[in-house]
Amino acid sequence: MSARTLPFLKMNGLGNDFVVWDARAQALPLDADAIRRIGDRETGIGFDQMITVEPSPAGADAFMRIHNRDGGEVSACGNATRCVGRLLMEETGRDAVTIETRAGLLIATAGPVPHAVTVDMGQPRFRWDEIPLAEEFHDTRAIELQVGPIDAPLLHTPSVVNVGNPHAVFWVRDPDAYDLERFGPLLENHPMFPERANISLAHVLSDAEIEIRVWERGVGLTQACGTAACAVAVAAARDRRTDRRVTVHLPGGPLVIEWRESDDHILMTGATEIEYEGALDLADLTFRRTGPGDTPILEVVR
């Protein structure tokens, strides 16, 4: 590649899609405006999150920096961690790697089938000031928050939890029955959430299955959100709605989530996909495809 172009990978985890850059040898020269332009699905590459793989100050295999489509940086993205974990495992030939994020150190391991990856997402946080919320609640399994008339709210009393980022989970009978594209921005930016929040509509199918739809802060409606799946699974088990191991069905496909009783760590397992290799022209932020998808493309992340 020339000095005017940057190689990248387009990847996804269950349709939750990413542009992945290798910035371990040289810093990525993209500001928030450029990120928004690249993330535009009409005029740019298009993505839910932009992922930058950098050297790890903590001595992990890599540091993973995450920007949402709106250009804002966030601390955690479970599906992106699985995708980067896959790349690093293919690069090193190991079946486990450690990834540093703003949310802490995460361990990715090879999943039960090719291209599946399991990530240890660490422990959930439930205290109101850890989520964080704007006011104190002693029990975050159901907080006082609603959408709609006081005597007949459309959505109400969500469970809230932090799994690297803030999540609010509304329990409903049919996630498709609500206009999440309308309610999502209002709830994401509600004064209750000083750092904004990811919003999930969840329906428990059985002790071992949940279906959800997600409005992701800084992104919007998404095919899949790994941290949301973790948040919903933990909130369900905490409230005894399900067992501690469940399959969470998202529009893009299933994730298996286990909230391990021995240490309270959350394990998330699901598929990853390399869509294609590409190159970005730094002069005008146009891009072109340079290679095929779903093969071990190690020259980008090495």
Task: Write out key terms for the chains shown.
15% helix; globular; mainly beta; 302 residues; disordered C terminus; 4 helices; 20 strands; 38% strand; two-stranded antiparallel ribbon; 18-stranded mixed beta sheet
The arrangement of helices and strands along the chain is: EEHEEEHEEEEEEEHEEEHEEEEE
> How many helices in DSSP terms?
4
Main beta-sheet annotation: 18 strands, mixed
**Helical coverage, percent range:** 10-25%
Question: What does this protein structure show overall?
Answer:
Helix content is 15%, strand content 38%. By secondary structure, it is mainly beta. It has an 18-stranded mixed beta sheet that branches. The longest helix is centred in the N-terminal third of the chain and has 15 residues, at 78-92. The chain starts with a strand and ends in an 11-residue tail after the last strand.
Quick gist of this model?
This protein is mostly beta strands and 302 residues long. It is 15% helix and 38% strand.
Strand and helix layout:
Elements: E1 5-13, E2 16-22, H1 32-39, E3 49-54, E4 62-68, E5 73-74, H2 78-92, E6 96-101, E7 104-110, E8 116-120, E9 146-147, E10 155-156, E11 159-162, E12 166-171, H3 180-188, E13 198-206, E14 209-216, E15 220-222, H4 226-238, E16 245-250, E17 253-259, E18 266-271, E19 273-281, E20 287-291
Parallel strand pairs: 2-3, 4-6, 12-13, 14-16
Antiparallel strand pairs: 1-2, 1-19, 3-4, 4-5, 6-7, 7-8, 8-18, 9-10, 11-12, 13-14, 14-15, 16-17, 17-18, 19-20
